Amino acid sequence: MAIKVLHHGLSTTVQDLGRPGYFHLGIPIGGAMDRVAMRAANLLVGNEEDAAGLEAVFLGPKLEFTKDALVAVTGADMPAKLDGVAQPGWTAFAVKTGQTLSFDFLKSGARIYIAIAGGIDVPVALGSRSTYPIGALGGFKGRALAAGDEMPLGTAVSGIVGRTVPEALRRMPGNPAELRVLPGLYWDRLTDEAKESFFADAWKVAPEADRMGYRFRGGRKLSFIDRTQPFGAGSDPSNIVDSCYPYGSIQVPGGTEPIILHRDAVSGGGYFMMGTVISADMDLIGQLQPHTPTRFIRVTMEQALEARAERTKLLAAIRQSLL
Amino acid sequence: MQNRYTFGGDEHLFVECSDEMSLDAFFKSLSMAKGVRDSAIKGVTEICPANASFQIKFNPDIIKPDDILKEVKAIEGAAEKAEPVLKTRIVEIPVFYNDPWTHETLMRFRERHQEPAGTDLDYAAHINDFPSVDDFVAAHSGSPWFVSMVGFVAGLPFMYQMVERQRQIEVPKYLRPRTDTPRLTVGHGGCFGCIYSVRGAGGYQMFGITPMPIFDPTQTTSYLRDFMVFFRPGDIVRFKPIDRDAYDQAIEDVDKGSFSPPIREVTFDLRAFQKDIVGTNANLEGMLNGH
C-alpha cells in the first residue's frame, strides 16, 4: 500500500475520466466533475490524462504516504500542506515516505483533484476506476474514502518536481458564474414568458448540489403551456413520459428549481428538460459552491461548438506548457 | 407517428417517437435504437432506448450535429417499416406483496403520501377501482409486463403492463419523494412499474419486494456472473406472488447460489398481441410454464 487515509474530508472519491458505454443500463459515465483540472493534475505528475486520482469536495482529506511520491493538486483554491508546510497549487511537488498531506480551508471553487504519479491503482470496474457510490461500483470498494483506507499506487513513469500550469490556463467560474445553455429537448413546453425569465433572472446554487446534479434557486417560477397531459406522463405539467436525460440537461420539477444533471446523473426520469448546459461549461459546474450567484446564457449550437473548440485549445495549451 | 428530433447540448441527439406512452412508440424507439447501433455511425458513443424515445450521445469533434441528425433521420423510414417482432425472453419474478420491509418504510413516510391513513396498496387498489387489495394484487400479477426502459439508477427496469389501456394500473407518485426505499422494492408510478435495483430515494408507490437481485456489482449472484445488470429493454416479466416462507427460502437460495429465475426465450409479435391480448398473454404464460 502507498497511501493511508487519516481523514476523509467531506467526500473524497477515486475518479478518472469515467466509464462511457453503460448509460443505457442506468450506470452513468461518472469521473471527475472538472475534467480539465483532473487531466492537468495527471499531466503534472507524468501520468496518462485518464489515470485515477482523488476528487475532494469543499474539504480536503488527510493522507499519509507510505511510499515516496510525486503529487499535484489542481482545481479549487484549497492550499495543500505537506507536514504542515504550504505547497503551491497546480504544481508538482515531492512527498517522502511518512509525510502527511493535508489541506487548508477552501478559498474558492469547490473541488480539488489530487494526482499521484502512477495513479491510484484500485481495480478497474466496467473500464474505469471512477467511484459510483449508488451502485457500489468502482473506486475504493465502491464508496467514498474513509479513515483507515489504504490504497496502492501504479508504477510512476516520469515526473518533474516544480512543473506548473501557468495561472492564465487555470479555468474557474466567474462571479456571477455564467453557464451557457442550448435550449432544446422539451423547451417548447414553456411559455414565452418563462423562456425569457429563465435567462434574465439571477439564480443561486442551492445546498442540494452534488455529483448527480446541481440545483438552483432564486429565479421566477417557470410557467407551462396548457395541454392535456399525454398518457403515461403523469399529471403535473412538468411531467413527461419517462425519457433519457442528457448529461448537463436542465430539468425543472414543478417549474420551480432547475436541476442540472452532472457526471453521476440518473439516466432518465419523468421530468421535462428545457435545454442542456454545453459540454464546454460542464467543468465549471463542478467548481460551484452553494449560494454562488449564477446566470444562464442562451447560446446556439454554433456557439456551443465554438466554446467546445476553445476548451480543446485550453487543454492543448496546458499540455504544451508541460512539455 | 412522426419522430421529433432535438439536441441535448452539443453531445446528445434526443429522439421522441411519441409524447404519449404506447407499445407502438416503445417498439419504434427500440427498433430505431437498434438501427442506429447496426449502422455504426462514427462518433456515436452511447445509445439509450427509453419508453417512447431514445437518446444518442456523440462526439461532435468526430461527427457534426447536423450530420448525425441526417444519418439518424435516414433510419426512421426503415424503422417504421420494420416488422414489430421481437426475439426476447420472459422471466418470472417472485414478489412478496405487502411485505414487512416496504410496509415499515411506507409508514415512515406517511406524511408524504396522498392517503396517510392507509398503505400504498390500499391507495392503489382504491383509485384503480379494485374491491380489495387481493384483487389488485391479482391484477398486478395477472398479466405480463414489458421492460420498456432500463435506467434511472443502475439496472432499474421500467415496466409497462401488457393489457388494454383502460385496464392499466395507474397511480400517482408520492406527493414528495421518499429519502429511502428498500432494495428490490416492486413499485409503481404513473403507468409504469419498476423494481428498485438498489436502496435509495424514490417516489413510486411500494407494493412488495422480490428476493431476486437484479443488480450485483460484485457479480457473485449465480445468474449475474456474466454481467452485473439483469434486465434489458424488451424483456417480458411475469410477477408471481409468494408468501413469507417462499420469500425466506428464495433468499436462502440466492445466498447459496442456487436461485435461478425461470426464463424462457420467446418471440413477441406486436400485431398478434394487439389483435388478441388475452390469447397472446396466455401463450406467453404457457411458454413460461414450459408448454
Your description of this structure?
The complex is a heterodimer of chains A (323) and B (291). Chain A is built from four helices and 20 strands. Chain A is of the alpha+beta class and 323 residues long. In chain A, the strands form four sheets. In chain A, strands 12-19-16-17-14-13-20 form a seven-stranded mixed beta barrel. In chain B, β3 and β4 form a beta hairpin. Chain B has two domains: 79 residues, Gyrase A, domain 2 (2-Layer Sandwich), CATH 3.30.1360.40; 202 residues, Cyclophilin (Beta Barrel). Chain B contains eight helices and twelve strands. Chain B is globular and about 55 Å long. In chain B, α4 packs across α5. Chain B has 291 residues and is of the alpha+beta class. The chains are: A alpha+beta (323), B alpha+beta (291). Chains A and B meet through β15, β18, β19 and α4 of A and β1, β2, β3 and β4 of B.
Features:
heterodimer, A: 323 residues, alpha+beta, Cyclophilin, 2 domains, seven-stranded mixed barrel, six-stranded antiparallel β-sheet, 4 helices, elongated, B: 291 residues, Gyrase A, domain 2, seven-stranded mixed β-barrel, four-stranded antiparallel β-sheet, 12 strands, 31% helix, 25% strand
Q: Which radius of gyration of chain B do the C-alpha atoms yield?
A: 20 Å
User: What are the secondary-structure elements of chain A, in order, as H or E?
Assistant: EEHEEEEEEEEEEHEEEEEEEHEH
Largest interface: A-B, 51 and 53 residues
Helix content of chain A: 10-25%
Order of strands across the widest beta sheet of chain B? 5-10-8-9-7-6-11
**Overall number of structural domains of chain B:** 2
Tell me the radius of gyration of chain A.
Answer: 20 Å
Q: Secondary-structure element order of chain B, as H and E? A: EEHEEHEHHHEEEEEEHEHH
CATH class of the largest domain in chain B: Mainly Beta
Q: What is the percent of helical residues of chain B?
A: 25-40%
Low-confidence segments of chain B: none
The major β-sheet of chain A equals: 7 strands, mixed, barrel
Q: Roughly what fraction of the amino acids of chain B lie in strands?
A: 25-35%
What is the residue-mean pLDDT of chain B, rounded to a whole number? 95
Average pLDDT taken over every residue of chain A: 97
The class by helix and strand makeup of chain B works out as alpha+beta
Q: Report the sheet-strand fraction of chain A.
A: 25-35%
Oligomer: heterodimer
Number of helices in the DSSP assignment of chain B: 8
